From TrEMBL:
Pfam families: HSP20. The lineage of its organism: Bacteria, Pseudomonadati, Pseudomonadota, Alphaproteobacteria, Hyphomicrobiales. Belongs to the small heat shock protein (HSP20) family. This is Hsp20 family protein. Keywords: Stress response. InterPro entries: A-crystallin/Hsp20_dom (IPR002068), ACD_IbpA/B (IPR037913), HSP20-like_chaperone (IPR008978).
Amino acid sequence: MRYDWTPLWRSSIGFDRLFDALDEVQRTAEETYPPYNIERIDENRFQISVALAGFTPDEVALTSEQNVLTLEGKKSEKEGKTFLHRGISTRNFKRQFTLADYIEVKGAHFENGLLVIDLQREIPEAMKPRRIEINGAAPSNVTQIESRAA
């Protein structure tokens, strides 16, 4: 079942990314190939592992644009092969992952038939909380001298 977000678009301003994300979640719930895992390594590091048995690095493209990570696979069929049984899927695919703000792709490599994608959250210094010095408070080690008016 697909939900139509159009009525909400008419009455909301500035929530376009939220509705795009909801639509993306709904769309990707229908996709099942290729299978993947998403793992949290620690607070700021993540790893996506995608099962790509039979694919070579030349047949896979990984691109990151804005907050979307796109993985595409195009399998080139070799002529002259006759299969008695074909259980390993080698169909073309396109899978997209929506990344949160400040998540960057650090690298990708093949390991035991899995494409492993390393991600890390890197918040810019300008966005991190910082302590601000408060001026104007009298230091506690200063004594005040009494003065008399003439």
